[in-house]
Design brief:
Helix content: 55-70%
Largest sheet: none
Shape: globular
Number of domains: 1
Structural class: mainly alpha
Distance between the termini: 25 Å
Length: 87
């Protein structure tokens, strides 16, 4: 099953990404790697997990998140508070 079609937690996506590598990762997994490895260098003090969860809830792709990091740091920060549909 394609990981973009299944529901993953941040931890699951990150573990899968570290197993398969960025080159073979589906988009949610690639985004988890980006959030865990690069996000704080680019944006600053944000929670990688909360940003990933917010971006997933908003339907963003990795390229959209990267673009936001380059153009609107406050929008990236706001993703931490996006509705995720969780409990």
């Amino acid at each position: 099953m394609n990981s973009s079609k299944r529901s993953l937690t941040f931890e699951q996506a990150l573990a899968e990404g570290r197993k398969v590598g960025a080159r073979r990762a589906d988009d949610p997994v690639l985004m988890a790697l980006f959030c865990a490895e690069t996000l704080q260098y680019v944006v600053g003090a944000v929670s990688p997990q909360l940003v990933w969860e917010g971006a997933q809830a908003q339907g963003l792709r990795t390229k959209d998140l990267v673009r936001l990091c380059a153009t609107d740091v406050l929008a990236v920060s706001a993703l931490m508070w996006a509705e995720t549909g969780g409990a």
